[in-house]
Design a protein that fits this description.
Layout: H1 3-6, H2 16-31, E1 45-49, H3 56-72, E2 76-80, H4 87-94, E3 102-107, H5 109-116, E4 128-143, H6 152-159, E5 165-169, H7 175-187, E6 191-195, H8 199-208, E7 213-217, H9 222-227, E8 231-235, E9 261-269, H10 274-288, H11 291-300, E10 303-307, H12 309-330
Parallel strand pairs: 1-2, 1-3, 5-6, 5-7
Antiparallel strand pairs: 3-9, 4-7, 4-8, 4-9, 4-10
Helix pairs in contact: 3-10, 3-11, 5-12, 7-12
């Protein structure tokens, strides 16, 4: 084609208006191809939290959203999609467009759901691209002071009177759920599970007295412990938790190998462009290393990891093995 024809001059076989319109359309398509990420984020980025508002994952996500909005000059907003032990929110991200505008704030429920059921609507390793390992925290077995259980053994003894106890967790398939079921196996405690849609609602059930025990990540009870309205009987970390130095670990109490902590990380749909993932990783790690972020998250009860995608990927692989073993022991595997 001649230079004149390439610039929409007079041609023999098609009207000039049609060729110009076609050229404009092609140019527009080139500008908006999936590879044109230089301006990302051009619109709000959703950080999906797969539990109800008010819990530790929600607090963490909102802290990150504020930091990422400032670091990347865009708008990061938290959207809670609770239910199904995290499957609803996690599955939604797995099926989302890989355009960088839907990101998962994941917790260990990502791996536990897979460990418990082959029918989980996502593959924890194949359907997501890891961005960053944010933090970890142990679970806490908590009661209210009015229950009168001075320690874990007193709670176990109390459970064997009458009809037993009820225990709350942020949901089926959370670390708290499997940790509590492992406690049942190892100690003989008599109790029934009451699942909730997040740590916030499960805490309210404990405070109202509708359940007697709460099994949930430390951050969800940290403030109540300081206020004296909640008493932690044991934590599931390998060593005593720095924020609760007077609380024994399950290992200290004679439960060898009883370690069950929760990880928190950021993941995107698997086909998200590498340049977007790299931007997110750098910005996330920068935010996590800021003194004000460190102070806030540590006060909430998190141990900040601030690791990249490789470490998050390794953590996911490790947890899939760990939770499959626990779920099998507890009889929680659904085929």
């Amino acid at each position: 084609m001649s230079t004149r024809n390439r610039h929409c001059g007079k041609v023999k076989y098609a009207p000039r208006s049609i060729l110009c319109a076609a050229a404009a359309l092609i140019a527009g398509m080139q500008v908006h191809t999936p590879f044109a990420h230089a301006a990302w984020p051009e619109r709000p980025v959703k950080l999906i939290v797969a539990v109800a508002a008010g819990g530790p994952t929600d607090d963490l996500a909102r802290t990150l959203a504020n930091g990422l909005s400032e670091a990347l000059g865009g708008s990061f907003v938290v959207e809670n999609r609770g239910g199904g032990g995290g499957r609803i929110g996690i599955g939604a991200v797995a099926r989302a467009d890989p355009d960088g505008y839907t990101i998962l704030v994941a917790a260990s429920s990502l791996t536990i759901s897979v460990a418990m059921s082959a029918a989980t609507p996502y593959d924890a390793e194949k359907d997501f691209a890891p961005i960053a390992l944010i933090a970890t925290t142990p679970s806490a077995f908590s009661v209210t002071p009015k229950l009168g259980a001075k320690d874990l053994q007193a709670l176990i003894d109390l459970s064997k009177r009458g009809d037993g106890l009820n225990y709350a967790t942020p949901g089926t398939g959370t670390v708290g759920h499997l940790a509590a079921e492992l406690l049942k196996i190892r100690s003989g405690i008599v109790m029934s599970h009451v699942a909730h849609t997040g740590a916030g609602p499960s805490l309210q059930s404990l405070l109202s007295g509708s359940v007697q025990l709460l099994a949930t990540p430390v951050p969800s009870v940290q403030a109540q412990v300081e206020a004296g309205t909640v008493k932690v009987l044991a934590v599931t970390s390998e060593n005593r938790w720095s924020k609760l130095p007077d609380v024994p670990t399950m290992v200290e109490l004679g439960y060898k190998g009883f370690v069950a902590d929760t990880f928190f990380g950021l993941l995107a749909p698997a086909a998200t462009a590498p340049e977007i993932l790299a931007k997110m990783t750098k910005a996330t790690l920068d935010v996590l290393r800021k003194p004000d972020t460190v102070t806030r998250l540590e006060k909430l009860g998190y141990d900040i990891a601030a690791k990249g995608p490789a470490e998050l990927s390794q953590r996911i692989t490790h947890e899939l093995t760990q939770w499959r073993d626990v779920a099998k022991q507890a009889g929680l595997v659904v085929k």
